Fold this sequence. Notes:
This protein has helices spanning 8-21, 38-48, 85-90, 92-96; strands at 2-5, 27-31, 63-66, 73-77, 101-105, 119-125, 134-140. It is α/β, with parallel strands linked by helices. A hairpin with an 8-residue loop joins strand 6 and strand 7. Helix 1 packs across helix 2 (38-48).
Amino acid sequence: MFVETMSPEETFALGKKIGEKVSPGTVLTLIGDLGVGKTVFSQGLAAGLGITETVNSPTFTILQIYDEGRCPFYHFDVYRIGDLCEMDEIGYEDYFYGDGVCLIEWADLIREILPEKYTQITISKDMEKGFDYRKIHITDC
Ligand code: ADP
Ligand code: MG
């Protein structure tokens, strides 16, 4: 299915709606160019899980863990990953197959190690439809 949003607030609200429903153990992947709205969506998802602290892109740490919501939230941003070994060093399997919700920005960079089942969220722009327009595809893989 796909959803169209016209503002960051709408993308946040979509993330929040999904965050309210998502079950622990779910892995969500986020695909899309820089500045397309992956972190905005992640912030909404975190809000839906009941997290009130600020969620930013964990670009320099790869993984940020939030324990405040109704289940743990594991927020990955693998944009700067050089080698899959770095994921091993983090112990990614504990999170991908853990009891929290995993969200991975730039997940296409670590395709080889994604679990068998995950929900892929692809965000794209269409300048003809306006600067703030985003098309968001949600697919179960
Ligand atoms: P990414 O994490 O994909 O690099 P960010 O979420 O950090 O991107 O930034 C998205 C930027 O796009 C923000 O500045 C946000 O305000 C802007 N924006 C404009 N329209 C939208 C929209 N419909 N959905 C999400 N973000 C939007
Ligand atoms: Mg980001």
